[in-house]
Every structure is written in structure tokens, then in C-alpha cells.
Amino acid sequence: QVHLVESGGGLVQPGGPLRLSCAASGFTFSTYAMSWYRQAPGKEREWVAYITSNGAITNYADSVKGRFTISRDNAKNTMYLQMNSLKPEDTAVYYCRRNVMDYWGKGTLVTVSS
User: Fold this and answer.
1) Percent of the chain, pLDDT > 70?
2) Which of 31, 77, 84, 91 has its CA 20 to 30 A from that of 12?
């Protein structure tokens, strides 16, 4: 059974960093591309970043390019999202997704506020 669990969310001040993790189980993690999405209060869920199965290729939404870094450790079955220079508009629930067959975690809340 595919299982994705996000962690690392919390309250952070504007300009600060935060690192999210997505622990995967129930499938061969190293063979699947993965993505991060987010959903801000009152808004639709939006794509944030993408990484190929071996981590060689990454892609980012324009809104986070240059501030966020997606990565993965296939030995640990874990994907990460390093978020720097956080802004209040980054406040959202962040989800990890296995692109194939559309599996999602339950999300972790990130709040950027002073």
C-alpha cells in the first residue's frame, strides 16, 4: 500500500528557512518521479516543484524558483523541499505526490508570519 507522509511544517518568520520531508513507503520509491504541491487558504491546490526518479531533473513554479529546492534521497525513501526566503504568500498546506497513479500525502501546514 502506497503511503506518503509529509513533515517539517510549522510557523516561520518572513525571510526564514524551512525544510519539508516526504517519507514514502509501499512502493519502489527510486523508480518514481515525485512532486510537491501546496494549497493556500481559500485557493486551489497548485504545483510547486517536480523531481525525476533519479533526481537528475528538477522543475519549479515561477513563484518559488530561486528560493525553493526539491531533492530526494532514494536510499532513505524520502523527498525534501528546502524553502528559503519564505514569504507570507507561501503560507499553505504542502503535499507530496507520486505522479503515477496520483497518490498524495495528507499534507503539512506551513505558516509564514511575524
Assistant:
1) 100
2) 77
pLDDT, tens digit (0-9, with 9 covering 90-100), for 44-95: 999 999 999 999 999 999 999 999 999 999 999 999 999 999 999 999 999 9
* Burial of residue 28 (number of CB atoms within 10 Å: 0-12, 13-18, 19+): exposed
In angstroms, the Cα distances linking 87 to 7, 13, 43 are 19, 8, 16
Mean pLDDT on 28-53 = 97
Three-class secondary structure assignment of the chain? CCEEEEECCEEECCCCCEEEEEEEECCCHHHCCEEEEEECCCCCCEEEEEECCCCCCEEECCCCCCCEEEEEECCCCEEEEEECCCCHHHCEEEEEEECCCCEECCCEEEEECC
